Amino acid sequence: xxxxxxxxxxxxxxxxxxxxxxxxxxxxxxxxxxxxxxxxxxxxxxxxxxxxxxxxxxxxxxxxxxxxxxxxxxxxxxxxxxxxxxxxxxxxxxxxxxxxxxxxxxxxxxxxxxxxxxxxxxxxxxxxxxxxxxxxxxxxxxxxxxxxxxxxxxxxxxxxxxxxxxxxxxxxxxxxxxxxxxxxxxxxxxxxxxxxxxxxxxxxxxxx
Length: 208
Hints:
Elements: H1 2-8, E1 13-18, E2 27-36, E3 41-45, E4 52-55, H2 56-65, E5 70-71, H3 85-97, H4 101-114, H5 119-131, H6 135-148, H7 154-165, H8 169-186, H9 191-199
Antiparallel strand pairs: 1-2, 1-5, 2-3, 3-4
Helix pairs in contact: 3-4, 4-5, 5-6, 6-7, 7-8, 7-9, 8-9
């Protein structure tokens, strides 16, 4: 059970149980803090009460009746024990989108420890670092992203903006031109890449 793998990693899980009936649900939140397969029990915290043990079979049924929902609240830089690469990265990106950039940077760094060859991870960390003022490290991660995914236009587009921001227009134009080319090859929407090319001072033809 994935819940148990999170507990083994030291991550208590907020779970939703339905302790009622199918026609009369009674939802209740608890913190799952431990389990014992020999005794076939789980340890739950409910509000301010002392931890209580519950039969594993009972918990499995009440948790399943609520849709098997669980929530992890992890400190910055710590990843869940379970979860796919894409889901974990998306959750960190959403954290940055919520205005928690420093926490997201810690998350991206932890993500790259687990997935060092992820171009999206380097791309995301590079952008976050650049926006936080750490331009040198941000550019390094964007450059790594281009090496890991040479066919992707996104890192090139951000490198163009970074170079332009540093006053290196010739380099910005090269990156922007290449980003437009890659986007066209990938069949992507050209608008954001043409917009960058225009911003850094390049010329382009609009395709009809």
